[in-house]
Amino acid sequence: MPTRRTLIKATAAAGLLAPFAGFAASTAKAQGGALFRFGIVADPQYAPFPPKPGGTRYYANSLWKLTEAIESFNKQDLEFVVTLGDIIDRHWDSFGDILPIYDRLRHDHFFVLGNHDYEVGQDYLRSVVRTVGMPKPYYDFTGGGYRFIVLDGNDVSLFAPPAGDPRLEIAAARLAKLREAGAPNAHNWNGSLSDVQFSWLGEALDRARSAGEKVIVLSHYPVYPHDMHNLWDSERIVELLTSHEHVVAFFNGHNHAGNYGEISGKHFVNFQGMVETPAHNAFAIVTVYENRLEIAGFGREPSRSLRLPETRGA
Hints:
- Helices cover 25% and strands 21% of the residues.
- It contains 7 helices and 12 strands.
- The chain has a 6-stranded mixed sheet with strand order 3-2-1-10-11-12. Strands 4-5-6-7-9-8 form a 6-stranded mixed sheet, with helices on one face.
- β4 and β5 (146-150) form a beta hairpin.
- α2 (62-74) runs parallel beside α3.
C-alpha cells in the first residue's frame, strides 16, 4: 500500500518538486510562427473501480488513456503539460497507481487540484499538495512572455480544509447564501477562493502587467459561462479578470462535457474530462502565437482557434 512518504519520494524523484526555469518565446515570432506549445489534460479521475452507474466515468480506463496522452505529448516539442485537476476520483491509494505514469513524461508538468483529489479521508488531506509535487495549492510560473496563474478552487470548500479549519465555516455560509438565492452552482462539490487568495490573484495580475506578460489562468473549476459547475465566487473572479486587458484565457476542467465562452476577447475554455467514456480519450495541445491560441484536440476534445486582441501591457 502506498504511504505518504513513498509517494512524496516518488514524485520528488520524478522532478515535480524541482524549480521551473521558465522558457523563452521562439524566434519564429518574427516570422509570425509559433511562440511555444504546451499540453492539457483534464479530469483523469482515476480509481480502480467499475464505471459509475449509468454508463459514465470509466475510472480505471484513465490509466491507459493517460499513457496514450503522454506518449503523444512525448512526440511533440512542448514546454510543459498541465493537468487541470481530479487526478484521482477517490482513495489515497489511487495516487500510487496514476502518479508513476507521469514519470514517463519527458516535459515539465504542473498540477491543478480538483475536488476529487481530496476524496482521501481526513488523515491525508494535509498531504495532497506535497504528494503531487506542487509548491503550494495556488501559484504562478512564467515563460515565453506569459504568466500562468494556477488557482485553488478548493481553498474555501466543504471537503479540502481539515477538520477545525475556519474556512469550513466560511464555506458553509457561502453555500447557504447561494442556495437561498437559487444559484445553479450551489453544490457542495464546488468551492471558492479565500479572500487571501483573491488578493494574491490581483497581485499576480499586476506583476504580469508590470513585466509585460500576457496571462493564462489555469483552474479546475470554471467561472464562465454560467453553469452548475462554476466556482461559488465566479462573478468576482470574472470581474477581476476582465478588468485586465493582458489576461487572454482561462482554462479549466470539472465539467466533463466541456464548455466555452468569451468576454471582450478573453477566452474561457472548459476542457472535456478524460474519464468520461469507455474508449475515447480527451486531451489537447495548445500552440501559442502572437495573435492567437490554436488548440488541437485529441479524441473527444474539439479543436479551436482563439484570436487574441492586441494588448498594450504585453
